[in-house]
Design a protein that fits this description.
Elements lengths: L3 E12 L2 E12 L3 E5 L6 H9 L6 E6 L2 E2 L5 H5 L2 E4 L11 H6 L14 H13 L15 H14 L4 E5 L7 H17 L3 E5 L3 H7 L2 E6 L2 E6 L1 H4 L2 H8 L2 E6 L6 E7 L11 E5 L6 H9 L3 E8 L3 H9 L2 E5 L7 H10 L5 E4 L21 E5 L1 H4 L6 H10 L4 E4 L2 H7 L1
Helix pairs in contact: 4-5, 5-6, 10-11
Amino acid sequence: MNREMLKFSHVAAGYGEREVLKDITMSVKEGEFVGLIGSNGTGKSTLIKCISGLLPLKNGTIMICGKENSALKNRERAQMVAVVPQSYHVGYDFTVEDIVMMGRNPYLSLRKKEGTEDYAIVEEAMKATNTEEFRDRLYNELSGGERQRVILARAIAQKPRIILLDEPTSALDIHHQIEVMELITRLNQEEYVTVLAVLHDINMASRFCQRIVMLQDGAVFADGTPQEVINHSNMERMYQMKLMIRKNPLFHKPEIVPIRVMEEEKAATRRHIHIICGADGAVKLIEELDERGYEVTVGVVNQGSGDWDICQELGVTCVEAEPFTPITWEKQAENLKLMEDAEVILVADVPFGQSNLMNLQGLENLSGKIYFHKNALSSDHTGGALVKRLEEIGRVKKITYFGDHDEVLREL
């Protein structure tokens, strides 16, 4: 327990004059499932090649199970480390069983051929990956998901202490992505195999990995649990784009929601726009208006709703109420205070009931132009009170009704 299976000390490597890895210092303990992330060109796959012995180091050392990697013979290394590449192609018509049996090659020689134990290990590996049913089929005739399971079976048959995965799910559909990651997790948890996986899908890494290492500029930039590594600062640095980070309610792990790379056209003047919303009907609108540079305020929204979440994410000022509680006069007073100097009051696509109708009280006394989303009329659960309230406001000042948010955005 806690034994170092991989240890990197000031590792530098590259191709010709191009240095990709500059100073990698880290270790992977026995039984860990570590995800290796980073933008393209940061050296993730290069590090896997260095461990595999395919690329010599320019500086530093790699220790595998306490042994110097450069001193290991290929057979000795292969008995400790198995590699599952992104894809694997063969030029001959090998059957699935033939491919899985290749995992036993580190233990065979001209004198030692496949024996009963080898066939038993191959059988066990195919059962673990649900590949035994097509053992006699040709590998080249399989689908992408089936091939990846076969290569994983080959790695299991190798009986390694460490499995290296180089983007093992990038060419697969979502069904086979999850299937492969679940198989790897089971191997890690049940067989206590140490796993180091290069993953492009951050949400997949967050869900399945115990620990995440982020590479940047050829060195370790962040190292920790998914909660510690997947934050705004790190992710925006890595992807150079605007994104949201939220907690997945099912797995309780952080996940990223990409928003945009190209910036929205900025507003000519910084006008104050107050949005009356709730649930999650104004998430996109709040984000777009904030991105364009408007001063956006929101209220009253219940904590935990989608509209509340985006306000927290963007730092937008809002009046908030506890979940599943009606809006009180006190909260509406805060709301009215917040929209006092708003030039535009925008009622978004939100269902209205008796609990949030209070959001519309006092609007006729404000100076801002009022825009009202027509969809809200289709989600009226007030028994006519919503229409009556709008008629009261309409007798004092104009309400402009609109059908989609883009209409309003064009007018601003």
